[in-house]
Amino acid sequence: MEVQLKIVGIVQILLAIIHLFFPRKFDWKNELHKLSLLNQQMMQVHTFFIALTVFLMGILNLSSTELLINTELGKRICLGMGIFWLFRLGIQFFGYSSLLWRGKRVETSIHILFIFTWIYFTYVNFNVFFKAL
Predict the structure, then answer these.
(1) What residues make up the domain containing 6?
(2) Confidence (pTM)
(3) Where are the alpha helices (DSSP H) in the chain?
């Protein structure tokens, strides 16, 4: 399980770094301009904190792998992270319209990649917790 948690950690750090490119990729300079100032800033602030949370999860997985696996607190933290990723998996199905990806090769591939990524993250974290029972 140690290797799996470390892989998840590396992928989470990469995922957090990708958030740095969101403003340019999604043309936030023009797109967010259409929103009220409050909505613009909420989008930017929430994206920052999602990226920070995912980054810190990755650091935790890399730096405290043994503690996550071998301590009661670590296992509970893994349960929380598993729930986080399970909800993220649900959002992948119910939070985004299929109009965004259906019939588009690249977008569909990314959609499927994220489904498998969230399943993997959920599985690894739940596996650490439920092996303790």
Answers:
(1) 2-130
(2) 0.92
(3) 2-18, 22-25, 28-31, 37-63, 65-70, 72-94, 105-130
